[in-house]
Amino acid sequence: MFVSDGMAADRPRWSRYGWSAGVAAVLSAGLFWLVRGSLIDDSYITLSYARNLAFYGHWGLITAEVSNSATAPLNVLVLAAVTAVVRHPVLALGIVFVLANVALAVFLHATARASGLPGWIGPLGALLVAANPLLLSTVGLEMTLASALLGMLLFAAVRRRYVLFGVAAGLLALTRLDLGVFVLAVLIGRPGLWRGWWRWLLAAAVTALPWFVFSWFYFGSAVPDTLVIKQVQRSWGDWDFHNGLQLYHQVFPTAVVISLVPAVLGLVCLVGLCVLRLFRRAARVWPWALIGLGAVAHYYVYTLMGVPPYHWYYGPSLIGLTVLLVGGVGLLASRRLVVPAVLAGCAVFGAQGWFALQHGLPWREAAITTNWATSADYARIGAELGRVVGTGTVASPGEIGALAYFCDCAIVDTFSDRGYLAAQLEKRLADASPLTRALLELNYRHFQPTEPLRVDYVLRREPGPGPDPLWRIGTTWAEPAHLALLPGEPEPETSE
């Protein structure tokens, strides 16, 4: 039986959580069916890495070059492992998507019981995360995996499972280094974890260090090259991370509002729990509040960095505040306010479900996207591009993921060819503070610059519909345009 301070007289019996797993599995499978044809371009970067690793044992966006632009190594490794079994990357993605949501539901259910809250908030939390329009627009990236790992981190913090906490921290670092903000928030606000500091620290090191050491020597960089590539890009004119949601609201107003509802309610819960904390009340749900504080800190860190407002950058904050929201719902329910709590949770999920269904059956494009073409457009063009260029090398038009996946040819830019990295690294070092410069130089200590591949063709995006319908593209975000295949060897543009 669990007690309210997170310590227990016996171990949790995971068989108790079968119904939570079942609900999460069925509904998340339906959600994946809905979005499987609307994956964004960066999702196909991940799928290309996973396919190349599963089929050829090769780490790279294209088979012609080794690269290190996969932002989430753990996501690639997991997808590659499943792809090696099922032999289809998109099917593997669906399986991982479902399993990650099941894991989140079970961890939240177990954490709720350990916190003295009703278990049904577990599947509710998983569904609110999975059905969020912005997060559905990131399927294929690392956000679903990150949500499951944050659920593991919360469970370990509440139950004071030091080794499990360290494993969760290490896996979060392998997913995205910036997710360490959540780990720090929990460690600062949960002093009891420091009693077993050596156990979680050792577990985290054993989990994460082998990959980082391997990457440091083999790729010449312990962390992915996107750390440099994205920071060199900086803002989109007047738009960067701090005001990017305003930009998205102008183009996708309904999707943005529905995506932000759980986060706003989570912030309300955070304020309430902080006030209760001052009066030494609701201590049992304080770890849930720490996940919310981690979400706020993550948002603040990205604001300071001034990076471009890619919509998936907002994902960790949305996940953390949604987890906090369901903790607040559970607290209301435990205070005999079951009906208002259930109605609040169902209302949020109902709005998300309504949007998901009215957006299309299935979706043609993501609810929030900055791509120039739909995945169907790129699938059509990529297949033709592969037939035309054969073994030749083609410079990307600025978006590379889906084209590389469907073309299965040597298409290059800074994401696939590290020959262009040296110039970007030099630019980043020139603008860096002394501390940042020292860290970057240490990270790239073993990096050996190479020459870019010789480009035989150029794929260029041109405004307007173009003469051949086969090459025409356009989305809600981007004006109608077409891709033109030209000979030559220009400077490849940086992919979004």
UniProtKB/TrEMBL annotation:
The keyword Transmembrane helix applies. The chain crosses the membrane at residues 17-35, 56-84, 90-112, 124-157, 163-188, 200-219, 251-278, 285-305, 311-332, 337-357. It comes from Saccharopolyspora thermophila. Keywords: Membrane, Transmembrane, Transmembrane helix. This is Glycosyltransferase RgtA/B/C/D-like domain-containing protein. It comes from the Bacteria.
